[in-house]
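in:
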């Protein structure tokens, strides 16, 4: 068997693949959805930095940008950080190491600090919300472990901002699930992933 140090650090998406897969979905549809999601994230990151050239936003992405602007007008968030890559190697805190392709946003709203995941899926199903809750749990744990280079005094909330094709949005406050069973269940999945990959 391999030791933990011999196994490459899994991405959060690798760990979540233990409970969610896109088998049976047309690969072309997945590719288009992934491209759209990447572009939406990138454009919003640039917008938050004040660097977005509106002339370069494709027409099909504009409704998602408008949805984000609607979220901003409603909640008046202050962006602390965005597009944050990390490796959480804090084994002394009782869990195995993992890494992420990026936390979408850390925001301050009404004096509370949020970790936020942006989603542009067509339909937010109960199953997807559960998978996204585990993703947020991984991010929340990394922030609380100080494995992420973001200076916030404490993390209060975790949520999904669902940006819709019609230009509207929905904020799902997942804090209770994330801080309750989410982090514990994510760590059980993490342990299972290492068990499988140690052989």
């Amino acid at each position: 068997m391999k030791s933990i140090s011999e196994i490459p650090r899994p991405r959060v998406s690798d760990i979540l693949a233990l409970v969610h897969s896109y088998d049976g979905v047309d690969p072309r549809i997945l590719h288009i959805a992934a491209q759209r999601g990447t572009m939406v994230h990138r454009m919003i990151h640039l917008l938050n930095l004040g660097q977005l050239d509106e002339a370069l936003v494709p027409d099909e992405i504009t409704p998602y940008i408008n949805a984000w602007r609607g979220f901003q007008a409603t909640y008046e968030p202050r962006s602390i950080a965005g597009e944050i890559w990390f490796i959480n190697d804090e084994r002394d805190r009782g869990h195995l190491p993992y890494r992420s392709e990026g936390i979408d946003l850390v925001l301050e709203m009404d004096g509370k600090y949020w970790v936020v995941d942006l989603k542009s899926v067509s339909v937010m199903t109960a199953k997807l919300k559960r998978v996204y809750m585990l993703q947020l749990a991984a991010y929340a744990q990394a922030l609380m472990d100080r494995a992420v280079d973001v200076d916030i005094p404490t993390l209060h909330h975790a949520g999904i901002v669902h940006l819709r094709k019609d230009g509207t949005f929905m904020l799902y406050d997942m804090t209770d699930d994330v801080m309750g069973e989410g982090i514990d269940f994510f760590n059980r999945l993490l342990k299972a992933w290492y068990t499988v990959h140690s052989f």
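note: The longest helix spans residues 27-49.
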